[in-house]
Amino acid sequence: MRKILILALREFNTAVRTRSFIIGLVIAPVLMFGSIFAINIFKDKVNIDDKKIVVIDHTGLLAQSLIEAAEMRNRNEIFDTETKEQVKPAYLFEIATPDTVNPFQQKLELSDKIRNKKLHAFIEIGPDVIHPGENAEASKIKYYSENSLMDDIRGWINNPLNNRIRQLRITELNLDAAQVQNLFHWHNAEGLGLVSNDAKTGNIEEAKESSVVETIFIPYFLLMLMFMIVLLSAVPLLSAVMEEKIERIAEVLLGSVTPFQFLMGKVLGGISISLAGSAIYLIGGAVLATRTGYVDSLPWHVIPWFIVYMLLNVVMIGSIMAALGSACNDNKDAQSLQFPAMLPIILPMFLMMPVIQDPLSSFSTGLSLFPLFTPMLMILRLASPVTIPLWQPFAGLAGVILFTVLFVWLGGKIFRTFILLQGKRPSLPNLIRYAFRK
Amino acid sequence: MNAIEISQVTKTFGQLKAVNNLSLAVPQGSIYGFIGPNGSGKTTTIRMIMNILYPDAGTIKIMGQTISGSRLEGVGYLPEERGLYKKMKVKELLQFHGQLKNGQHISKEITYWLEKFELTAWTNKKVETLSKGMSQKIQFIATIIDRPKIIILDEPFSGLDPVNAEIIKSAILELQSQGSTIIFSTHDMHMAQRMCDYIFMIYKGEKVLDGTPTSIQDKYGTDTLHLQTEMGAKALTGIEGIDKVNDYGQMQEVRIKQGADTQQILAALLNKTRITKFEITKPSLHDIFIRIARPEIKEEPQHA
Predict the structure, then answer these.
(1) Of A214, A263, A394, B208, which has the fewest beta carbons less than 10 angstroms from its beta carbon?
(2) CA A132 to chain centre
């Protein structure tokens, strides 16, 4: 064990000095959280140039509502309430008479104005918008701009236009506007968790409002964290072992340690890197959650599971990476083996969304009990707001332990044979042959 | 008690029998030279002694103990193909190897050996800045940093200039004088002949020679002449009783046929040229090596 620790310590010291570790551990979260801060900082720093929009109103009844709504908005909503500085652009609508003879020519000219930055957008209101008929095209409101899908104004015009259309219809029907308004009162269901008993006081507590942070962000964060930790600590073992083989360091070490001690030293080094990495990330995440007021949303009960699963995942993937590294003779070999060996951490990333959407489905349960995916997908499920039956993380753990032991055993056999073999290609038949050889 | 005892050891790789039924006893405190052509089984034997490769049959004992799954303590090993962590500093690297070998007084040993090998100025330099010769000396120090009782060196002199080879040689002798048993493989027959108490030659996986250099030479008798003449090798042309000639330019090493009369050869030469040296001697280890490994290694062109 002493020799394994010495090897692991060297591995740790070497890894933490590498550029990839520093980039992965420090720069990645800085970029990740930095981008969130950047979005917050820059969200109000929008272009405040006036947005000129031309309206071709075939009904002749709706365009004015846009002008009036825009005037109100430009007076009340585009200035900072405290500093009185303009923080949003003003919307300036202009009515254009529809060209009934050559409508496409008119739209082309307006489009060119947009291309030449003289105009922001133009809107075409179909003649049958108030009373949609069989002609679907004539019943549409069309918004033309260079990036209409992401254009805020496209969403903004809906309210004033639909309110005006509704008003016109009510007037036509001679109805009482106040009574009719009631008809259109819309409700949204509020998302809540479950009612519970306070453990201390025994009082029944109202359920908390479900948030995106609890439902998506935290499980996603833990999944990403495990992915990054394995990427930082286990995956580099392939190239580290390969380099030691190519540079003939391996046999020098084998004069002092057994191949199994060599392999375990590497894997334990990976574990120490993963613990250091996860400690930094988890503490950073907790600090961030405290600062942003989400500390109550953190699933503390998941942390022990996370640590256990992460360590087993690092040992499982690390053993295989080190074994494959021992089989490689050059970077070409390493490239061809690294991707398949990374699938147990890549595939769960692709399977993340259906599991987050329904953590209790048979699909999610089944996948999270497959030992190669268990560490990542079980954590995803455990971190979600739903209650996972207790037997499932334990059953998953048993499977992962079994696979970890199997992978360490197979990895050890591959490693022992390949570490001194030069020039033998690490083909699948060769790997299988040496893994199961007596 | 012998330091190492190999009994009827066999190792096969696929169809190739790398080592066949090999037995060998290495006495404590001796220097044992392993010689043999490339691919004859030297490195495989050494790797089996080091428990890096497992024999298919037979047993290997180190200090009377049959080797098991654990790595050997008190055995220093310098493999033929060796490398160092290039990004580590010299002292850091030697400390790492010393700790791995559970060495005592590592810092003191590092200082001693670096000074002896004239590398003190490189103590805190990265390995990647060292020359090849310096790296080899560091590799040697890493092997013996814990002053092991048994030291196994696979081609320790390969690639070294004479000055560095001399430094390594004196270190080996120093370690032997302090009680270490040393095994080294080499292609340098002169070094082996001068340094080794015993020599073992393996050829095609089988032991072909084993004993002291003198006893090995005695087996071949006095069938060799060392000659220096004014005419050089040309003087030997047409002389009866000559089997082979190794022409070194300034001198010739001549193997005579069995039963040939050296006095008749001397007389024949005197008729042709002036002789400055005529020595009847035992064959050198180099010559014995070539005689055994003849199919693998081409001899010098024959002049006789």
Answers:
(1) A394
(2) 41
3-state secondary structure of A125: strand
C-alpha B123/C-alpha B134 separation (Å) is 12
Closest CA to A92 of A113, A65, A80, A74: A74
Say whether A7 and B100 touch across the interface (CB within 8 A).
yes
- Pairing state of beta strands A51-57 and A121-125? parallel
- Chain A partners of B52 at a C-beta cutoff of 8 Å? 251, 254-255, 420
Q: Can you list the alpha helix ranges (DSSP code H) found in A372-420?
A: 374-382, 391-418
> How much is the CA Rg of chain A, to the nearest whole Å?
31
Among A7, A251, A258, beta carbon nearest to B69: A258
Domains of chain A (ranges, CATH numbers): 2-34+210-435 (no CATH), 51-176 (3.40.190)
Q: How far is CA A262 from CA A99, A198, B97, in A?
A: 82, 52, 13
Give the integer Cα–Cα distance in Å for A162 and A226. 48
Return the closest-CA partner of residue A88 out of A153, A146, A40, A39. A153
Q: What is the pLDDT along chain A (438 residues), one digit of tens a residue?
A: 888 888 888 888 887 877 777 777 777 667 766 766 776 666 666 778 899 999 999 999 999 999 999 999 999 998 888 888 888 899 999 999 999 899 899 999 999 999 999 999 999 999 999 999 888 889 999 999 998 888 889 999 999 999 999 889 888 988 887 777 777 778 888 878 778 888 788 888 887 777 777 778 888 888 888 888 888 888 888 888 888 888 888 888 887 888 888 888 888 888 888 888 888 888 877 887 787 777 777 778 888 999 899 888 988 888 888 888 888 888 888 888 888 888 988 999 898 888 888 889 999 999 999 999 999 999 999 888 888 898 999 999 999 999 988 888 887 778 777 777 776 777 777 777 777 766
CATH fold, domain B1-74+149-219, is Rossmann fold (3.40.50)
* Residue for token pair 């042959």: A433
Chain B closest-CA separation from residue A274 CA (Å): 22
Tokens for B200, please give them.
């073992």
User: A5 and A268 in contact (C-beta within 8 Å)?
Assistant: yes
Pick B221-292's CATH classification: 3.30.950, 3.10.50, 3.30.70, 1.10.3470.
3.30.70
Structure tokens at A31: 């970029």
Does the CA dihedral B151-B155-B159-B160 come out positive or negative? positive
CA A84 from centroid of its chain's CA atoms: 37
Closest CA to B71 of A7, A316, A424: A7
The yes-or-no answer to whether B1-74+149-219 and B221-292 have a common fold is no
Label residue A132 left, alpha or beta by phi (over 0 means left) and psi (-120 to 50 means alpha).
Answer: beta
- Separation in Å, CA A77 to CA A90, A91, A332: 9, 11, 60
Q: ipTM of the predicted structure?
A: 0.76
Q: Give the strand pairing for B181-185 and B31-35.
A: parallel
Instruction: Please tell me the distance from the alpha carbon of residue A339 to that of residue A341, in angstroms, as a whole number.
Output: 5
Among B47, B71, B143, the residue with its CB nearest the CB of A257 is B71
> By CB neighbour count within 10 A (0-12 exposed, 13-18 middle, 19+ buried), where does A113 fall?
middle
Q: How many CA atoms lie within 13 A of A297 on its CB side?
A: 24
Q: How far apart are CA A26 and CA A332, in angstroms?
A: 29
Residues A400, A312: Cα–Cα separation, whole Å: 7
For chain B, give every domain's residue range.
Answer: 1-74+149-219, 82-147, 221-292
Inform me whether the C-beta atom of residue B52 falls under 8 Å from chain A C-beta atoms: yes
